[in-house]
């Protein structure tokens, strides 16, 4: 059975994306782009270290027991993996490991695909947002913030190393 569109939820997510993008473009990116590459990436990865929160989708009571367990498991384990990769990225960047930048690429690609997959599964695996309980704020607010920050990580990763200190 296909999921019916939940217009208020979709508008909430769209509003969070728009606001996240505007705040990032207006306040975060102008400052962040002047930072050294490793410092900017470390800060952005730190934001993702909290993605262990997605594990709560596997906790009955936090979400309804009617939430599709395939969806809940994918969200939970995907987010935990992203959080672990974010922490590994922070360590690698802090200690200037030679593999720091490839680890950040891995974290950022995994994290982005994981979030997009969660939205796709939510739309196709009958994950009614009304069943998310306290977890409603994760896809409605936190995921848009995370996706916008993933875009900023890609922007930092792709800028020329020689342009690191250039505003």
UniProtKB/TrEMBL annotation:
Keywords on record: Membrane, Transmembrane, Transmembrane helix
Membrane-spanning intervals of the chain: 6-29, 41-64, 70-93, 100-122, 134-157
Protein name per its UniProtKB record: Uncharacterized protein
Record lineage: Bacteria, Pseudomonadati, Pseudomonadota, Alphaproteobacteria, Hyphomicrobiales
